[in-house]
Amino acid sequence: MSDWEIVIGLEVHVHLATESKLFCSCSAKFGRDANTSVCPVCLGMPGVLPVMNRKAVEYAILTGLILNCEIPLYSKMDRKNYFYPDLPKNYQVSQYDKPFAINGYLDVDINGFIKRIGITRAHLEEDAGKNIHDESGKGSSFVDYNRTGVPLLEIVSEPDMREPIEAFHYMKMIRQIVRYLGISDGNMEEGSLRCDANISLRKKGEVELGTKTELKNLNSFRHVQKALEHEALRQKKLLEKGESIVQETRLWDDGKSKTFSMRTKEEAHDYRYFPEPDLVPFTFSKKEIDHLKEGLPELPLMRKKRFISEHGLPSYDAGVLTDEMFYADYYEEVVSCFPNKKMVSNWMMGEWMREMNAMEKGTQKSPVTPIKLAQLLTFVDKGVINAKIAKDVFSEMFAKGFDAKEIIKSKGLEQIGDREKLKQIVSKVVDENPQTVADYKSGKKQAAGFFVGQVMKETKGKANPKIVNEILKELLS
Ligand SMILES: [Zn+2]
Question: Which residues contact 317 (CB under 8 A, 6 or more apart)?
């Protein structure tokens, strides 16, 4: 971008994983038949009164705490004018000047470099429903109110990001955190996490911000990055031609790889916020907030650092294993029983994750418990079975839930480590293949691999490969 500086701020919307909606007892679960999770409260019937969901407030404050925010001891809900059919009350209950969390920050890992992004605020609001437009040409539209009133936490960052890649990592980290806290599944395909991005350009060295545009409803990490990259270029071209940027809301068309204008931005006062008269303001004691603070989990980035220092793992391994709290917990349980930490990491990143990823999406329970994996690895470590056979045993443990010991015993998979016995087999293979011996002796060292393969075939994969290689070396030298 040469002499231009990009300025990006994100508003991330997180669906909170509460059982019920924000102000009524309707289920907040995704994926029900249209308009089956509704009641007079979320349909905005006259005379109904909202009742605040306690869990949603707790989740909002937990998020604020983990984002290093101040939690004001007084906060309240406000009404925001909203004239669209997907919110039948014609207003949205949100928070205006007294949100649950303010003035925080998040340290984001951008390919090993840590950047601190300011958090302006986090506030709670109700989501709108979903308009469904009939595409048959008859011009009719439908509304599904299941999502109406589902609790939504909006996390607003400071305009601290300078590259689209930073926005990508920031959003990833927000997803990781809400999953760690267990307050949202962070499922972007189902809309549990989406983001609006504000972007403007200014000449390097300038302090004042340029005119921004808002990119709405970005629902994948890749879209966030691509849309911002595209928008930065579009603004740069206009500015270099001497034209000005129109403050507006734009949408990202992934198929065409470009943004297009949706509407010019309303000013904040158009929303005409006023305090929600049907809900009393919230007051908290410092003790209540401290109590919530004590229950916070170790953050992914802190845990990653600890995995490097305490378990001696490479940064890459530590990053993969702390990506989900469930992975990290599992790892630490395995290494508490089996101390070869890098071997556990390799197994988890290889076999274990492959099997887990093949399971139903979102599964957080491994059929092979940490203790059972530790037992299997102990058998490999002691030379009872070799690594290749261990992989087959593992697949069977995963599918059927048996112990490694049962499978090894019932199938007679113990490794053949008897040197004399192996020597007979290796000699036989060598005698049967004089041409390969000649090749080996003429310098084709890869011929040794052929012999190992033949020995494995003879022993149904059970030979100890280390001993086979030693014998081969003796015989062929
Ligand atoms: Zn309801």
Answer: 307, 342, 345, 349
Two tokens, residue 380: 């490999």
Question: For residue 20, how far is its CA from the centre of ligand 1 (angstroms)?
Answer: 8
> Dihedral of CA 147/280/118/210: which sign?
positive
| Burial (CB count within 10 angstroms: exposed 0-12, middle 13-18, buried 19+), residue 299 | buried
Helix axes 404-411 and 370-381, enclosed angle (nearest 10): 50
CA of 91 to the centre of ligand 1 (A): 16
Q: Rounded to the nearest whole angstrom, what is the distance from the C-alpha of residue 40 to the centroid of ligand 1?
A: 6
Expressed in angstroms and rounded, the spacing between residue 21 Cα and the centre of ligand 1 is 7
The domains located in the chain, with CATH, are 4-289 (no CATH), 298-411 (no CATH), 419-476 (1.10.10.410)
For ligand 1, the distance from its centroid to the CA atom of residue 43, given in whole angstroms, is: 7
Residue 70 has what DSSP assignment? B
pLDDT number for residue 269? 56
Residue 1: pLDDT band (50, 70, 90) is: low
Instruction: Dig out the tokens for 245 from the structure.
Output: 């940027």
CA of 184 to the centre of ligand 1 (A): 20
Instruction: Kindly give the distance from the C-alpha atom of residue 106 to the centroid of ligand 1, in angstroms, as a whole number.
Output: 34
Q: How close is the Cα of 143 to the center of ligand 1, in Å?
A: 15
Q: What is the pTM of this model?
A: 0.81
What's the average model confidence in pLDDT over 327-342? Answer: 94
Say whether 217 sits in a helix, a strand or coil.
Answer: strand
Q: Check residue 183 and give its pLDDT.
A: 93
Cα-based torsion angle of the residue sequence 63, 68, 72, 78 in order, rounded to the nearest 10 degrees? -50
CA of 345 to the centre of ligand 1 (A): 46
Instruction: Give the CA radius of gyration of the chain.
Output: 30
Distance (angstroms) between ligand 1 centre and the Cα of 147 equals: 10
pLDDT band at 265; cut points 50, 70, 90: low
CA of 191 to the centre of ligand 1 (A): 20
